[in-house]
Amino acid sequence: MSTKEKIQEDVALLEQEVFQHEIVLHNDDVNTFDHVIDSLVAVCDHSLEQAEQCATLVHYKGKCTVKSGELKDLEPRCSKLLQLGLSAELV
Predict the structure, then answer these.
(1) Rounded distance between C-alpha atoms, residue 76 and residue 9, angstroms
(2) In what order do the strands lie in the sheet with 21-26?
(3) Distance between CA 29 and CA 51 in Å, rounded?
(4) Tell me, what's the pLDDT at 3?
(5) Of the options 3.20.20.210, 3.30.1390.10, 3.60.15.10, 3.40.50.720, the CATH number for the domain spanning 19-90
(6) Which pTM does this prediction carry?
């Protein structure tokens, strides 16, 4: 095995070891579209358009991944969404 192949193999392995977690937002009958959109903009740093799209997906599909990344970044964001009354989970 050449050095280049070994390095590529090591990089591929490291990329697999980085676990991507997700915040999944679930539909509910309590929150308005405006509240969900405002919350996603404030907490998840979404653009207005992105937040509107996520809110629509949640409404029609029942759930939507609204943010993905490292656990240490997502935990406080998910907690804030829960504090705002949204139905969210970290997976």
Answers:
(1) 34
(2) 63-69, 21-26, 87-90
(3) 18
(4) 65
(5) 3.30.1390.10
(6) 0.79
